[in-house]
Amino acid sequence: MPAPPLKPDLEHDVARRRTFAIISHPDAGKTTLTEKLLLFGGAIQLAGAVKARRASRHATSDWMDVEKQRGISVTSSVMQFEYAGHTINLLDTPGHEDFSEDTYRVLTAVDAAVMVIDAAKGVEAQTIKLLEVCRLRNTPIITFVNKLDREVRPPVKLLEEIEGTLRLDCAPITWPIGMGKSFRGVYHLLTERLLRFQAGEERRTEAEVVEGLDNPRLDELYPDQVAELRSDVELIRDASPPFEIDRFLAGRQSPVFFGSGINNFGVQEILQALIDWAPPPQPRDGGRPVHPAEGPFTGFVFKIQANMDPKHRDRIAFFRICSGRYRPGMKVRHLRLGRDLKLGNALTFMANERVSSEDAVAGDIIGIHNHGQLQIGDTLTEGEVLQFKGIPYFAPELFRAARPRDPMKSKQLQKGLQELGEEGAIQVLVARQGAQMLLGAVGRLQFEIVAHRLAGEYGVDAVYDAVDIFTARWLTFPDDATRRKFERDEAASLARDVDDNPVFLAANKYNLKLTLERWPTVGFRETREHGEKLAAA
Ligand code: G4P
Questions:
Q1: Which residue range forms the structural domain that includes residue 295?
Q2: Are 416 and 353 members of one domain?
Protein backbone atom coordinates (compact mmCIF):
# COMPACT_ATOMS: atom_id res chain seq x y z
CA MET A 1 0.00 0.00 0.00
CA PRO A 2 1.53 3.37 -0.95
CA ALA A 3 2.08 5.86 1.87
CA PRO A 4 -0.71 8.46 2.14
CA PRO A 5 0.12 11.91 0.69
CA LEU A 6 1.43 14.64 2.97
CA LYS A 7 -0.86 17.50 3.97
CA PRO A 8 0.47 21.07 3.89
CA ASP A 9 -1.50 22.20 6.97
CA LEU A 10 -0.02 19.31 8.92
CA GLU A 11 3.49 19.97 7.62
CA HIS A 12 3.19 23.50 8.95
CA ASP A 13 1.90 22.43 12.37
CA VAL A 14 4.37 19.58 12.75
CA ALA A 15 7.32 21.83 11.94
CA ARG A 16 6.37 23.94 14.99
CA ARG A 17 6.50 20.98 17.40
CA ARG A 18 9.40 20.20 19.69
CA THR A 19 9.01 17.13 21.89
CA PHE A 20 11.78 16.46 24.37
CA ALA A 21 12.69 15.12 27.80
CA ILE A 22 15.24 16.21 30.38
CA ILE A 23 17.62 13.51 31.51
CA SER A 24 19.88 13.76 34.52
CA HIS A 25 21.07 12.09 37.66
CA PRO A 26 18.93 12.95 40.71
CA ASP A 27 19.81 16.34 42.21
CA ALA A 28 21.57 17.67 39.13
CA GLY A 29 18.76 20.19 38.73
CA LYS A 30 16.15 18.68 36.41
CA THR A 31 13.15 19.93 38.37
CA THR A 32 14.65 23.38 38.65
CA LEU A 33 15.37 23.56 34.93
CA THR A 34 11.88 22.24 34.08
CA GLU A 35 10.41 24.97 36.17
CA LYS A 36 12.56 27.69 34.64
CA LEU A 37 11.77 26.51 31.12
CA LEU A 38 8.06 26.76 31.95
CA LEU A 39 8.62 30.16 33.51
CA PHE A 40 10.48 31.51 30.49
CA GLY A 41 7.88 29.90 28.25
CA GLY A 42 5.20 31.84 30.12
CA ALA A 43 3.46 28.60 31.09
CA ILE A 44 3.72 29.31 34.80
CA GLN A 45 3.93 32.66 36.52
CA LEU A 46 5.81 31.85 39.65
CA ALA A 47 8.98 29.98 40.38
CA GLY A 48 8.24 27.16 42.80
CA ALA A 49 5.04 26.17 41.02
CA VAL A 50 6.32 22.82 39.78
CA LYS A 51 7.53 21.83 43.20
CA ALA A 52 4.34 23.19 44.76
CA ARG A 53 2.24 21.27 42.28
CA ARG A 54 4.11 18.12 43.16
CA ALA A 55 3.57 18.80 46.80
CA SER A 56 -0.15 19.36 46.37
CA ARG A 57 -0.44 16.22 44.28
CA HIS A 58 1.20 14.42 47.14
CA ALA A 59 -1.34 15.80 49.50
CA THR A 60 -4.43 14.90 47.49
CA SER A 61 -3.65 11.51 46.12
CA ASP A 62 -3.32 8.42 48.22
CA TRP A 63 -1.52 6.80 45.32
CA MET A 64 1.25 9.22 46.04
CA ASP A 65 1.84 7.67 49.43
CA VAL A 66 4.85 5.84 48.09
CA GLU A 67 6.25 9.10 46.88
CA LYS A 68 5.50 10.86 50.11
CA GLN A 69 7.11 8.18 52.23
CA ARG A 70 10.17 8.19 50.06
CA GLY A 71 10.17 11.92 49.39
CA ILE A 72 10.55 11.37 45.69
CA SER A 73 8.63 11.75 42.52
CA VAL A 74 7.74 8.52 40.76
CA THR A 75 5.18 9.70 38.27
CA SER A 76 6.09 11.28 35.02
CA SER A 77 3.90 13.56 33.08
CA VAL A 78 3.76 15.79 30.08
CA MET A 79 3.82 19.56 29.97
CA GLN A 80 2.86 21.46 26.85
CA PHE A 81 3.55 25.15 26.36
CA GLU A 82 4.02 27.70 23.61
CA TYR A 83 7.30 29.46 23.08
CA ALA A 84 8.30 31.79 20.25
CA GLY A 85 5.67 30.44 17.87
CA HIS A 86 6.42 26.82 18.72
CA THR A 87 4.48 24.19 20.64
CA ILE A 88 6.84 22.55 23.10
CA ASN A 89 6.07 19.18 24.68
CA LEU A 90 8.24 18.53 27.69
CA LEU A 91 8.03 14.95 28.91
CA ASP A 92 9.01 14.52 32.51
CA THR A 93 10.98 11.42 33.39
CA PRO A 94 10.78 10.06 36.93
CA GLY A 95 13.61 11.61 38.85
CA HIS A 96 14.76 9.11 41.42
CA GLU A 97 17.70 6.85 41.84
CA ASP A 98 15.68 3.70 41.47
CA PHE A 99 14.31 4.42 38.13
CA SER A 100 12.04 2.07 36.32
CA GLU A 101 11.10 0.98 32.85
CA ASP A 102 8.86 4.02 32.62
CA THR A 103 11.89 6.23 32.28
CA TYR A 104 13.12 4.24 29.32
CA ARG A 105 9.77 4.30 27.64
CA VAL A 106 9.30 8.03 27.94
CA LEU A 107 12.50 8.38 25.95
CA THR A 108 10.95 6.40 23.08
CA ALA A 109 8.36 9.14 22.69
CA VAL A 110 10.68 12.15 22.37
CA ASP A 111 12.62 13.63 19.45
CA ALA A 112 15.39 15.22 21.52
CA ALA A 113 16.72 15.34 25.08
CA VAL A 114 18.31 17.95 27.31
CA MET A 115 20.98 16.41 29.52
CA VAL A 116 21.63 18.23 32.79
CA ILE A 117 25.04 17.72 34.38
CA ASP A 118 25.91 18.94 37.85
CA ALA A 119 29.18 20.73 37.20
CA ALA A 120 30.47 19.82 40.65
CA LYS A 121 29.78 16.12 40.19
CA GLY A 122 30.31 15.54 36.50
CA VAL A 123 28.84 12.56 34.69
CA GLU A 124 26.91 10.37 37.14
CA ALA A 125 25.58 6.81 36.98
CA GLN A 126 22.02 7.49 35.95
CA THR A 127 23.04 9.90 33.22
CA ILE A 128 25.11 7.13 31.70
CA LYS A 129 22.17 4.70 31.74
CA LEU A 130 19.76 7.22 30.26
CA LEU A 131 22.17 8.21 27.57
CA GLU A 132 22.50 4.58 26.54
CA VAL A 133 18.76 4.51 26.02
CA CYS A 134 18.89 7.72 23.97
CA ARG A 135 21.57 6.12 21.88
CA LEU A 136 19.26 3.26 20.88
CA ARG A 137 17.42 5.79 18.75
CA ASN A 138 20.27 8.27 18.16
CA THR A 139 18.27 10.94 19.97
CA PRO A 140 19.90 14.38 19.63
CA ILE A 141 21.15 15.67 22.99
CA ILE A 142 21.57 19.26 24.18
CA THR A 143 23.83 19.50 27.24
CA PHE A 144 23.29 21.93 30.10
CA VAL A 145 26.16 22.08 32.58
CA ASN A 146 24.46 23.38 35.72
CA LYS A 147 25.40 25.02 39.03
CA LEU A 148 28.23 27.24 37.79
CA ASP A 149 27.36 29.52 40.73
CA ARG A 150 29.14 26.93 42.87
CA GLU A 151 32.74 25.83 43.09
CA VAL A 152 32.75 23.20 40.38
CA ARG A 153 35.12 21.16 38.27
CA PRO A 154 37.16 22.92 35.60
CA PRO A 155 34.94 23.20 32.49
CA VAL A 156 37.59 21.68 30.21
CA LYS A 157 37.72 18.61 32.47
CA LEU A 158 33.94 18.34 32.39
CA LEU A 159 33.91 18.30 28.62
CA GLU A 160 36.62 15.65 28.61
CA GLU A 161 34.56 13.58 31.00
CA ILE A 162 31.40 13.85 28.89
CA GLU A 163 33.29 12.90 25.78
CA GLY A 164 35.16 10.04 27.45
CA THR A 165 32.42 8.54 29.61
CA LEU A 166 29.45 9.09 27.35
CA ARG A 167 31.24 8.79 24.02
CA LEU A 168 29.49 11.94 22.88
CA ASP A 169 31.40 14.71 21.14
CA CYS A 170 30.95 18.11 22.74
CA ALA A 171 30.61 21.40 20.93
CA PRO A 172 30.62 24.19 23.53
CA ILE A 173 28.25 26.98 22.52
CA THR A 174 28.81 29.13 25.59
CA TRP A 175 31.91 29.31 27.75
CA PRO A 176 31.87 30.26 31.44
CA ILE A 177 33.75 33.17 32.95
CA GLY A 178 34.75 32.08 36.44
CA MET A 179 32.69 29.94 38.77
CA GLY A 180 31.21 30.02 42.27
CA LYS A 181 31.46 33.47 43.83
CA SER A 182 33.43 34.72 40.87
CA PHE A 183 31.01 33.43 38.22
CA ARG A 184 30.48 36.37 35.87
CA GLY A 185 28.59 34.86 32.99
CA VAL A 186 29.31 33.16 29.70
CA TYR A 187 30.81 34.13 26.40
CA HIS A 188 28.65 32.94 23.50
CA LEU A 189 31.01 31.33 21.02
CA LEU A 190 28.67 31.58 18.02
CA THR A 191 27.29 35.09 18.47
CA GLU A 192 30.58 36.31 19.99
CA ARG A 193 28.70 38.11 22.72
CA LEU A 194 29.03 38.38 26.45
CA LEU A 195 26.06 37.22 28.55
CA ARG A 196 26.44 38.64 32.03
CA PHE A 197 25.41 36.78 35.14
CA GLN A 198 23.36 38.36 37.84
CA ALA A 199 22.18 35.99 40.53
CA GLY A 200 18.45 35.36 40.58
CA GLU A 201 17.55 37.73 37.77
CA GLU A 202 14.22 36.62 36.27
CA ARG A 203 14.66 37.56 32.65
CA ARG A 204 17.99 38.47 31.26
CA THR A 205 18.17 41.21 28.67
CA GLU A 206 21.62 42.58 28.19
CA ALA A 207 21.72 46.27 29.08
CA GLU A 208 24.92 46.56 27.12
CA VAL A 209 26.14 44.61 24.12
CA VAL A 210 29.73 43.47 24.50
CA GLU A 211 30.83 41.81 21.30
CA GLY A 212 34.10 40.14 20.39
CA LEU A 213 36.69 38.44 22.53
CA ASP A 214 39.23 41.22 21.94
CA ASN A 215 36.79 43.88 23.07
CA PRO A 216 38.62 46.14 25.62
CA ARG A 217 35.36 46.38 27.53
CA LEU A 218 35.98 42.79 28.68
CA ASP A 219 39.31 43.93 30.19
CA GLU A 220 37.52 46.70 32.03
CA LEU A 221 34.77 44.44 33.32
CA TYR A 222 36.85 41.42 34.30
CA PRO A 223 40.48 42.48 34.66
CA ASP A 224 41.33 39.34 36.65
CA GLN A 225 39.49 36.85 34.49
CA VAL A 226 39.72 37.98 30.93
CA ALA A 227 43.12 36.43 30.22
CA GLU A 228 41.87 33.02 31.30
CA LEU A 229 38.72 33.41 29.21
CA ARG A 230 40.74 34.25 26.12
CA SER A 231 43.13 31.38 26.55
CA ASP A 232 40.27 28.94 27.34
CA VAL A 233 38.36 29.96 24.24
CA GLU A 234 41.45 29.67 22.10
CA LEU A 235 42.11 26.22 23.49
CA ILE A 236 38.51 25.13 23.01
CA ARG A 237 38.41 26.40 19.46
CA ASP A 238 41.57 24.51 18.67
CA ALA A 239 40.58 21.33 20.44
CA SER A 240 36.90 20.86 19.69
CA PRO A 241 35.34 20.71 16.25
CA PRO A 242 32.71 23.38 15.60
CA PHE A 243 29.05 22.67 16.14
CA GLU A 244 27.60 20.75 13.21
CA ILE A 245 23.84 20.45 13.04
CA ASP A 246 23.95 17.18 11.09
CA ARG A 247 26.15 15.50 13.67
CA PHE A 248 23.86 16.80 16.43
CA LEU A 249 20.78 15.44 14.65
CA ALA A 250 22.52 12.08 14.25
CA GLY A 251 23.05 11.98 18.04
CA ARG A 252 26.83 12.17 17.69
CA GLN A 253 27.63 15.68 18.84
CA SER A 254 26.06 17.69 21.63
CA PRO A 255 25.98 21.47 21.89
CA VAL A 256 27.03 22.40 25.43
CA PHE A 257 25.73 25.33 27.47
CA PHE A 258 26.96 26.44 30.88
CA GLY A 259 24.65 28.07 33.40
CA SER A 260 22.84 28.05 36.68
CA GLY A 261 19.25 26.89 36.54
CA ILE A 262 18.31 28.17 39.94
CA ASN A 263 19.52 31.63 38.91
CA ASN A 264 17.69 31.52 35.56
CA PHE A 265 21.00 31.70 33.83
CA GLY A 266 21.45 29.81 30.57
CA VAL A 267 17.80 28.74 30.40
CA GLN A 268 16.87 30.99 27.51
CA GLU A 269 19.75 29.59 25.48
CA ILE A 270 18.41 26.07 26.00
CA LEU A 271 14.97 27.10 24.77
CA GLN A 272 16.55 28.79 21.78
CA ALA A 273 18.60 25.69 20.99
CA LEU A 274 15.46 23.57 21.14
CA ILE A 275 13.73 25.86 18.67
CA ASP A 276 16.66 26.44 16.36
CA TRP A 277 18.30 23.02 16.36
CA ALA A 278 16.19 20.25 17.93
CA PRO A 279 14.30 18.33 15.27
CA PRO A 280 10.56 18.54 14.75
CA PRO A 281 8.77 15.17 14.81
CA GLN A 282 10.48 12.74 12.47
CA PRO A 283 9.15 9.79 10.48
CA ARG A 284 8.67 6.70 12.66
CA ASP A 285 9.00 3.05 11.81
CA GLY A 286 5.56 1.48 11.85
CA GLY A 287 6.52 -1.37 9.55
CA ARG A 288 6.98 1.30 6.89
CA PRO A 289 8.27 4.82 7.56
CA VAL A 290 5.29 6.88 8.69
CA HIS A 291 5.73 10.58 7.94
CA PRO A 292 4.33 12.98 10.57
CA ALA A 293 2.49 15.04 7.95
CA GLU A 294 0.57 12.12 6.47
CA GLY A 295 -3.18 12.75 6.72
CA PRO A 296 -4.35 9.63 8.59
CA PHE A 297 -3.95 9.66 12.35
CA THR A 298 -1.48 7.12 13.82
CA GLY A 299 0.51 6.72 17.02
CA PHE A 300 1.39 4.46 19.94
CA VAL A 301 0.95 4.13 23.68
CA PHE A 302 4.26 4.59 25.53
CA LYS A 303 3.10 4.83 29.12
CA ILE A 304 0.15 4.03 31.30
CA GLN A 305 -0.41 5.96 34.44
CA ALA A 306 -2.78 4.77 37.08
CA ASN A 307 -4.80 6.84 39.48
CA MET A 308 -3.88 10.29 38.32
CA ASP A 309 -7.15 11.34 39.79
CA PRO A 310 -7.74 9.34 42.96
CA LYS A 311 -11.46 10.13 42.91
CA HIS A 312 -11.93 8.23 39.69
CA ARG A 313 -9.37 5.48 39.93
CA ASP A 314 -8.67 6.19 36.32
CA ARG A 315 -5.86 4.99 34.14
CA ILE A 316 -4.53 7.20 31.43
CA ALA A 317 -2.72 5.87 28.39
CA PHE A 318 -0.12 8.36 27.18
CA PHE A 319 -0.19 8.30 23.42
CA ARG A 320 2.41 9.79 21.10
CA ILE A 321 0.86 10.91 17.83
CA CYS A 322 3.09 9.89 14.92
CA SER A 323 1.03 11.27 12.03
CA GLY A 324 -2.22 13.01 11.21
CA ARG A 325 -4.48 14.99 13.48
CA TYR A 326 -6.50 14.05 16.54
CA ARG A 327 -10.14 15.19 16.50
CA PRO A 328 -12.47 14.66 19.46
CA GLY A 329 -14.78 11.71 18.89
CA MET A 330 -12.78 10.21 16.05
CA LYS A 331 -12.89 6.48 15.41
CA VAL A 332 -9.62 4.59 15.31
CA ARG A 333 -8.50 1.03 14.77
CA HIS A 334 -6.95 -0.80 17.71
CA LEU A 335 -4.59 -3.08 15.81
CA ARG A 336 -3.73 -5.56 18.57
CA LEU A 337 -7.37 -6.19 19.45
CA GLY A 338 -8.52 -5.90 15.85
CA ARG A 339 -11.43 -3.64 16.68
CA ASP A 340 -12.53 -0.04 16.41
CA LEU A 341 -12.30 2.41 19.27
CA LYS A 342 -13.89 5.81 19.69
CA LEU A 343 -11.50 8.44 21.06
CA GLY A 344 -13.99 10.40 23.08
CA ASN A 345 -12.32 13.02 25.15
CA ALA A 346 -8.59 12.70 25.00
CA LEU A 347 -6.55 15.00 27.22
CA THR A 348 -3.82 17.48 26.53
CA PHE A 349 -1.46 18.06 29.43
CA MET A 350 -0.68 21.72 29.85
CA ALA A 351 1.99 22.89 32.22
CA ASN A 352 -0.41 23.26 35.11
CA GLU A 353 -3.67 21.57 34.10
CA ARG A 354 -5.08 18.85 31.94
CA VAL A 355 -7.66 19.96 29.42
CA SER A 356 -9.78 18.33 26.72
CA SER A 357 -7.72 18.01 23.63
CA GLU A 358 -9.28 19.79 20.67
CA ASP A 359 -6.56 19.50 18.13
CA ALA A 360 -3.31 17.60 18.36
CA VAL A 361 -0.80 16.59 15.70
CA ALA A 362 2.32 14.47 15.38
CA GLY A 363 4.74 15.11 18.21
CA ASP A 364 1.95 15.88 20.65
CA ILE A 365 1.05 13.58 23.50
CA ILE A 366 -2.59 12.94 24.26
CA GLY A 367 -3.99 11.11 27.26
CA ILE A 368 -6.62 8.48 26.51
CA HIS A 369 -8.89 7.21 29.27
CA ASN A 370 -8.15 3.55 29.55
CA HIS A 371 -10.29 0.80 30.97
CA GLY A 372 -7.79 -1.95 30.31
CA GLN A 373 -8.11 -2.01 26.54
CA LEU A 374 -4.80 -0.22 25.93
CA GLN A 375 -1.35 -1.59 26.70
CA ILE A 376 2.08 -0.10 26.30
CA GLY A 377 3.23 -0.45 22.72
CA ASP A 378 -0.30 -0.55 21.26
CA THR A 379 -0.65 1.13 17.89
CA LEU A 380 -3.81 3.00 16.86
CA THR A 381 -4.46 4.04 13.25
CA GLU A 382 -7.37 5.04 11.05
CA GLY A 383 -7.42 1.57 9.52
CA GLU A 384 -3.98 0.84 8.13
CA VAL A 385 -2.22 -2.17 9.61
CA LEU A 386 0.89 -0.76 11.30
CA GLN A 387 2.93 -1.55 14.41
CA PHE A 388 5.26 1.12 15.74
CA LYS A 389 8.57 -0.29 16.86
CA GLY A 390 11.14 0.74 19.40
CA ILE A 391 9.18 0.45 22.65
CA PRO A 392 11.15 -2.29 24.34
CA TYR A 393 10.81 -4.36 27.46
CA PHE A 394 14.21 -4.64 29.10
CA ALA A 395 15.42 -7.84 30.73
CA PRO A 396 14.65 -7.39 34.43
CA GLU A 397 17.56 -7.27 36.82
CA LEU A 398 15.67 -7.61 40.09
CA PHE A 399 13.30 -10.41 41.02
CA ARG A 400 10.81 -11.34 43.70
CA ALA A 401 8.34 -14.20 44.09
CA ALA A 402 4.85 -13.04 45.01
CA ARG A 403 2.32 -14.97 47.10
CA PRO A 404 -0.81 -13.76 48.88
CA ARG A 405 -0.69 -13.66 52.67
CA ASP A 406 -4.20 -15.07 52.61
CA PRO A 407 -4.20 -18.16 50.32
CA MET A 408 -7.87 -17.46 49.47
CA LYS A 409 -6.71 -14.36 47.63
CA SER A 410 -4.56 -16.06 45.05
CA LYS A 411 -7.11 -15.41 42.25
CA GLN A 412 -7.06 -11.67 43.02
CA LEU A 413 -3.28 -11.68 43.12
CA GLN A 414 -3.16 -13.37 39.75
CA LYS A 415 -5.65 -10.93 38.25
CA GLY A 416 -3.89 -7.92 39.75
CA LEU A 417 -0.48 -9.00 38.55
CA GLN A 418 -1.77 -9.87 35.10
CA GLU A 419 -3.25 -6.36 34.78
CA LEU A 420 -0.26 -4.57 36.25
CA GLY A 421 1.99 -6.64 33.99
CA GLU A 422 -0.03 -5.70 30.92
CA GLU A 423 0.05 -2.09 32.00
CA GLY A 424 3.85 -2.27 32.20
CA ALA A 425 4.19 -1.42 35.90
CA ILE A 426 6.25 -4.57 36.37
CA GLN A 427 7.11 -7.70 34.42
CA VAL A 428 5.24 -10.76 35.53
CA LEU A 429 6.72 -14.16 34.79
CA VAL A 430 5.19 -17.51 35.62
CA ALA A 431 7.71 -20.26 36.34
CA ARG A 432 7.12 -23.34 34.27
CA GLN A 433 7.68 -25.65 37.21
CA GLY A 434 5.48 -24.95 40.19
CA ALA A 435 3.71 -22.02 38.48
CA GLN A 436 5.31 -19.56 40.90
CA MET A 437 4.47 -15.91 40.12
CA LEU A 438 7.70 -13.99 39.66
CA LEU A 439 8.03 -10.25 39.47
CA GLY A 440 10.85 -8.78 37.45
CA ALA A 441 11.87 -5.14 37.61
CA VAL A 442 14.51 -2.78 36.39
CA GLY A 443 14.26 -0.52 39.45
CA ARG A 444 13.59 -1.54 43.04
CA LEU A 445 10.85 1.00 43.43
CA GLN A 446 8.68 -0.90 40.96
CA PHE A 447 8.13 -3.55 43.66
CA GLU A 448 6.95 -0.96 46.14
CA ILE A 449 4.56 0.55 43.65
CA VAL A 450 3.13 -2.83 42.73
CA ALA A 451 2.72 -3.85 46.37
CA HIS A 452 0.99 -0.56 47.07
CA ARG A 453 -1.35 -0.89 44.12
CA LEU A 454 -2.14 -4.56 44.74
CA ALA A 455 -3.18 -3.67 48.25
CA GLY A 456 -5.10 -0.52 47.29
CA GLU A 457 -6.77 -1.57 44.06
CA TYR A 458 -7.10 -5.33 44.33
CA GLY A 459 -7.28 -5.77 48.08
CA VAL A 460 -4.37 -8.22 48.11
CA ASP A 461 -1.79 -8.19 50.82
CA ALA A 462 1.09 -10.13 49.32
CA VAL A 463 4.45 -11.40 50.47
CA TYR A 464 7.41 -10.77 48.22
CA ASP A 465 10.15 -13.32 48.72
CA ALA A 466 13.69 -12.94 47.49
CA VAL A 467 14.61 -15.40 44.74
CA ASP A 468 17.88 -16.60 43.30
CA ILE A 469 17.60 -15.15 39.84
CA PHE A 470 20.28 -13.04 38.29
CA THR A 471 18.62 -12.04 35.05
CA ALA A 472 16.15 -13.12 32.37
CA ARG A 473 16.47 -13.64 28.63
CA TRP A 474 13.75 -13.97 26.03
CA LEU A 475 14.18 -17.08 23.96
CA THR A 476 13.92 -17.66 20.24
CA PHE A 477 14.37 -21.10 18.70
CA PRO A 478 15.58 -22.11 15.26
CA ASP A 479 13.02 -24.92 15.05
CA ASP A 480 10.44 -26.85 17.04
CA ALA A 481 12.75 -29.77 17.81
CA THR A 482 15.29 -27.47 19.47
CA ARG A 483 12.51 -25.76 21.41
CA ARG A 484 11.18 -29.08 22.73
CA LYS A 485 14.67 -30.26 23.70
CA PHE A 486 15.44 -26.96 25.41
CA GLU A 487 12.14 -27.05 27.28
CA ARG A 488 12.90 -30.55 28.51
CA ASP A 489 16.56 -30.00 29.48
CA GLU A 490 16.19 -26.53 30.99
CA ALA A 491 12.69 -26.90 32.43
CA ALA A 492 13.76 -25.72 35.88
CA SER A 493 14.90 -22.37 34.47
CA LEU A 494 11.95 -21.63 32.21
CA ALA A 495 9.12 -19.18 32.61
CA ARG A 496 6.52 -17.39 30.49
CA ASP A 497 5.86 -13.67 30.35
CA VAL A 498 2.44 -11.96 30.22
CA ASP A 499 2.30 -12.43 26.47
CA ASP A 500 3.18 -16.12 26.76
CA ASN A 501 6.71 -15.73 25.45
CA PRO A 502 9.33 -18.22 26.66
CA VAL A 503 11.89 -16.77 29.09
CA PHE A 504 15.10 -18.23 30.46
CA LEU A 505 15.91 -17.38 34.08
CA ALA A 506 19.61 -17.40 34.87
CA ALA A 507 20.65 -18.09 38.44
CA ASN A 508 23.94 -16.25 38.00
CA LYS A 509 26.33 -14.88 35.42
CA TYR A 510 28.16 -18.16 35.08
CA ASN A 511 24.97 -20.12 34.55
CA LEU A 512 23.95 -17.70 31.80
CA LYS A 513 27.31 -18.01 30.09
CA LEU A 514 27.24 -21.83 30.19
CA THR A 515 23.69 -22.02 28.89
CA LEU A 516 24.56 -19.67 26.03
CA GLU A 517 27.47 -21.92 25.11
CA ARG A 518 25.40 -25.06 25.40
CA TRP A 519 22.69 -23.75 23.04
CA PRO A 520 24.48 -21.88 20.26
CA THR A 521 21.45 -21.86 17.95
CA VAL A 522 19.01 -20.52 20.54
CA GLY A 523 18.52 -16.75 20.75
CA PHE A 524 18.83 -15.18 24.24
CA ARG A 525 17.50 -11.66 23.97
CA GLU A 526 17.93 -8.82 26.43
CA THR A 527 14.99 -6.85 25.08
CA ARG A 528 11.77 -7.57 23.36
CA GLU A 529 9.36 -5.29 21.62
CA HIS A 530 5.96 -4.72 23.13
CA GLY A 531 3.37 -6.88 21.47
CA GLU A 532 6.04 -9.10 19.96
CA LYS A 533 5.38 -12.84 19.93
CA LEU A 534 8.49 -14.97 20.13
CA ALA A 535 7.34 -18.30 18.84
CA ALA A 536 9.71 -20.91 17.39
CA ALA A 537 10.85 -19.98 13.92
P1 G4P B 1 16.51 17.06 40.34
O2 G4P B 1 15.14 17.38 39.85
O3 G4P B 1 17.47 16.81 39.22
O4 G4P B 1 16.59 16.01 41.38
O5 G4P B 1 17.13 18.37 41.02
P6 G4P B 1 16.45 19.69 41.59
O7 G4P B 1 16.04 20.60 40.51
O8 G4P B 1 15.44 19.33 42.63
O9 G4P B 1 17.73 20.34 42.25
C10 G4P B 1 18.48 19.67 43.24
C11 G4P B 1 19.11 20.68 44.18
O12 G4P B 1 20.03 21.48 43.44
C13 G4P B 1 18.09 21.64 44.76
O14 G4P B 1 18.54 21.98 46.04
C15 G4P B 1 18.20 22.84 43.86
O16 G4P B 1 17.79 24.02 44.46
C17 G4P B 1 19.68 22.85 43.56
N18 G4P B 1 20.00 23.54 42.31
C19 G4P B 1 19.42 23.42 41.10
N20 G4P B 1 20.02 24.24 40.20
C21 G4P B 1 21.01 24.88 40.86
C22 G4P B 1 21.98 25.86 40.48
O23 G4P B 1 22.05 26.32 39.35
N24 G4P B 1 22.84 26.26 41.45
C25 G4P B 1 22.79 25.78 42.72
N26 G4P B 1 23.67 26.26 43.60
N27 G4P B 1 21.89 24.88 43.12
C28 G4P B 1 21.00 24.42 42.20
P29 G4P B 1 17.92 21.39 47.36
O30 G4P B 1 18.57 22.07 48.48
O31 G4P B 1 18.01 19.88 47.30
O32 G4P B 1 16.40 21.70 47.24
P33 G4P B 1 15.65 23.09 47.46
O34 G4P B 1 15.45 23.16 48.91
O35 G4P B 1 16.51 24.17 46.91
O36 G4P B 1 14.39 22.91 46.68
A1: 284-381
A2: no
